[in-house]
UniProtKB/TrEMBL annotation:
Organism of provenance: Streptomyces albireticuli
InterPro entries: SAM-dependent_MTases_sf, SAM_dep_MeTrfase_SAV2177_type
Gene3D superfamilies linked: Vaccinia Virus protein VP39
Name of a matching Pfam family: Methyltransf_19
Protein name: Methyltransferase
């Protein structure tokens, strides 16, 4: 398993809440500790649909990835992977294209500690895990695990789901700069799939959620639809364009009606590089 060349010493920091473990708790997983559960309960008290929003977000990822695999995409770079949760991305895309290759990246040592579960792909395909931060695209793109798995001369599906709201602007717009660097590194035909929390449908509740994360030591930046759209600048949005996670190509027409925009609380889109 590649760890991006940064060494394998893992400090799990069980004493403080981690976004990956809070999210795992919300999804009903088993990889969380007291500090994570405490923060997750505060998130739920601030925003009761948080667990549903996490499931809706995850379901979006699989619909989008399946769609891209069916359209012929065979290489995926998933940044901000989270703690393995079946089905993982490679299970979804390799069910369509057994030879699909998936590189997972996260900056959280907890994800690294569980990454082995991400590496049992189909024999025809390939998966790898790279420990790196999205704000350092050169480290992600230059990691031996990525270079051995993906051919950056061929189209790559960039998957940045429920990640970018953890990258604050800090006055220098690091999130947009990082995404632009990733977009520049992949060829025409590549895609960008992203979701992002917003305060636009449940302003008071989402402001409280941001506060819970910030108090737990994790920056959390809500962005507007306009700021979310900017991540896709210069690329062609696939139908239905920028929408909420539950509304992006629902499997059945009625599915989009099972949640409200205030419950989903996350923008979603996929775009292709011309
Ligand atoms: C809410 S989880 C989303 C997991 C998965 N993408 C999904 O949507 O099901 C966010 C993940 O992003 C990771 N993350 C947060 N900031 C990051 C950064 N700067 N670089 C890489 N990963 C980051 C967290 O560790 C966590 O695993």
């Amino acid at each position: 398993m590649s760890d991006g060349g940064r060494g394998t010493a893992v400090d799990l920091r069980l004493d403080r809440a981690h976004p990956a473990r809070i999210y795992d708790f919300l999804l009903g997983g088993r990889t969380h500790f007291a500090a994570d559960r405490e923060a997750a309960r505060r998130v739920l008290s601030a925003f009761p649909p948080a667990a549903a929003a996490a499931r809706i977000n995850r379901a979006f990822t699989h619909r989008a990835a399946r769609h891209l695999a069916r359209e012929g995409m065979g290489q995926f770079l998933d940044i901000g992977t989270g703690i393995p949760t079946s089905p993982n991305l490679h299970e979804t895309v390799q069910a369509v294209r057994p030879d699909a290759r998936v590189v997972y990246t996260d900056n959280d040592p907890v994800v690294l500690a569980h990454a082995a579960a991400l590496l049992h792909g189909r024999p025809e395909g390939r998966t790898a895990y790279v420990q790196a931060d999205v704000t350092d695209p050169a480290a992600v793109l230059g990691a031996p695990g990525l270079r051995e798995t993906l051919d950056l001369g061929r189209p790559v599906a960039l998957v940045l789901v429920a990640l970018l709201h953890f990258v604050p602007d800090d006055g220098c717009d690091r999130a947009h700069a990082a995404v632009e660097e990733l977009k520049a590194a992949v060829p025409s035909g590549s895609t960008l799939t992203a979701t992002h929390a917003t305060r636009e449908f449940a302003p008071a509740a989402m402001a409280r959620v941001a506060e819970v994360y910030q108090r737990a030591g994790t920056p959390f930046q809500l962005r507007t639809e306009a700021a979310f759209r900017r991540f896709f600048d210069g690329w062609e949005l696939l139908e239905p364009g920028v929408t909420l996670t539950h509304r992006w190509r629902p499997d059945r027409p009625g599915d989009a009606l099972r949640a409200t925009s205030a419950e989903a609380a996350c923008y979603a889109a996929t775009a292709r590089k011309p």
